[in-house]
Specification:
By secondary structure, the protein is an alpha/beta fold. Helix content is 28%, strand content 26%. The radius of gyration is 21 Å and the shape is globular. It starts with a helix and ends in a 6-residue tail after the last strand.
Length: 363
């Protein structure tokens, strides 16, 4: 049968389309058919294997758009998602990674020109932007990502489901790298969400004495599964004080004050969770007790993501406790955005139409 020019164009259009979860406004998100993006110079078209959902995505849905451009969201719609694993489908001019290469990314896109980038502090870039916030993200079948922020994981020895946890693990490893906690020192992690659990796992790997505190029994049980040598508790005892370093991983006012109360004189409070509003603290107490109050922002694609991949490769089966399943995009609103009772980490598989168990292990 002879194919008309119109039919050939229609077939070509279908071949260049993809499904994506598109944010259209506050609490307005849905599955749409969109034109598959084309990689430009220095960019990769990545076929998404699994995308992770986090609190930032939930905030953009429930209260936003905040970090995503509101005008762009209204006019064109926006694809959330900044945690992922996938394989290179195609490369734009000047790229080196071959199609089929498995990759992850830290999501942040530094300019590589400012003074911070020149010092290697790319997470502090003056012109920092991020996949899924300032750029369309990974809650789609395909996503365009600059090659310079992608990491080849061919030799990582982990599954693509496990690799999808690299971005939040990288945030945790960055915070741990900034804090002066060593083997046998005492560390308190407040908040056993995704990042908090990775902080605890990294500290345990260092040989630190780790206490994980979360008000949720389920989260403390998950922490115990991930970090068998850590102490987990839903209620801190009066004697739980004088920690060398306290990691505040919730972004709540009460957790901040708890951190300052529990740290020792001369100790460090590491702020990992994002605080949405200004906080009032007793700076006189901070000064007199010589407490270091330090923030940790994002991560660097080379150092922190590489460290995250190494952590994920240690007993990778245990990460099933954090991310036990992958859901289809069509169920993301029901099972994540509008659901408070969800696993620590929800993965989305854009290629399935039913929930599947995740595969964590060595490859």
């Amino acid at each position: 049968m002879e194919i008309s020019r119109e039919m050939a164009q229609e077939i070509s259009d279908i071949d260049h389309q993809m499904h994506a979860l598109v944010l259209r406004g506050k609490e307005q998100i849905g599955l749409e058919l969109r034109t598959r993006p084309t990689p430009g110079a220095g960019e990769l078209l990545v076929r998404i294997h699994a995308a992770g959902l986090c609190g930032t995505d939930a905030t953009e849905y429930r209260h936003g758009p905040r970090l995503a451009d509101p005008g762009r969201v209204r006019r064109h719609g926006h694809v959330l998602g900044h945690e992922f694993s996938g394989t290179v489908a195609a490369g734009g001019p000047g790229t080196r990674m071959a199609p089929g290469t498995p990759v992850v990314s830290g999501a942040g896109i530094p300019c590589r020109d400012c003074s911070y980038c020149q010092r290697g502090e790319t997470n502090l870039c003056n012109n920092y932007s991020s996949i899924g916030l300032q750029h369309d993200g990974t809650l789609a079948e395909y996503c365009v990502i600059p090659e310079h922020v992608c990491v080849d994981i061919s030799e990582a020895g982990i599954s693509l489901d496990t690799a999808a946890l690299a971005q939040p693990a990288g945030i945790a490893l960055h915070a741990v790298s900034l804090s002066p906690v060593f083997a046998d020192e005492r560390a308190l992690v407040i908040g056993a969400g995704g990042v908090g659990l990775f902080v605890a796992a990294a500290l345990e790997a260092r040989g630190s004495q780790v206490v994980v505190h979360d008000r949720s029994t389920d989260q403390t049980l998950t922490a115990a599964a991930i970090c068998p040598n850590a102490t987990t508790t839903i209620e801190l005892a009066t004697s739980d004080v004088d920690f060398d370093v306290v990691y505040e991983c919730t972004g709540s006012d009460s957790a901040l004050h708890q951190s300052l109360h529990r740290v020792r004189r001369g100790g460090t409070v590491m702020l990992v969770g994002l605080h949405p509003t200004p906080r009032e603290i007793d700076l006189l107490d901070v000064t007199l007790r010589q407490v270091t109050l330090m923030g940790s922002s994002a991560q660097t694609p080379v150092t922190d993501i590489s460290a995250a991949l190494q952590l994920l490769a240690v007993e990778p089966e245990r990460w099933s406790a954090i991310a036990p399943r992958a859901i289809p995009m069509a169920l993301a609103t029901e099972l994540f955005f509008d659901n408070a009772q969800r696993p620590t980490k929800t993965l989305v598989d854009p290629w399935v139409d039913q929930i599947r168990p995740t595969q964590h292990g060595r490859e």
